[in-house]
């Protein structure tokens, strides 16, 4: 059975996969990807981490609540965010 994880950014602004649903006392980093850069690089960075998650038995879901004072939606253009993560309703 797959375990839950979510995408986010590390304190150093690198893409990463974190274990769990965001309610953990401390974030548990499972994998670190590319540094965050706005624009089309987001697609490749997310695709690489999605592939890693599938290969290692994790499924990616949004965290239950914001794990930072800011959210990814604040850093990524709304249209690109919706295309990558699905429209938020």
Question: Which secondary structure elements does this structure contain, and how are they paired or packed?
Answer:
Elements: E1 3-9, E2 14-19, E3 29-35, H1 41-55, E4 58-60, H2 72-75, H3 78-85
Parallel strand pairs: 1-4
Antiparallel strand pairs: 1-2, 2-3
User: How many individual helices?
Assistant: 3
Q: What gap, in angstroms, lies between the N and C termini?
A: 28 Å
* Major beta sheet, strand line-up: 3-2-1-4
Number of E strands? 4
Secondary-structure element order, N to C: EEEHEHH
Helix fraction by DSSP (H/I, runs of at least 4)? 25-40%
Portion of residues in beta strands equals 25-35%
Low-confidence stretches: none
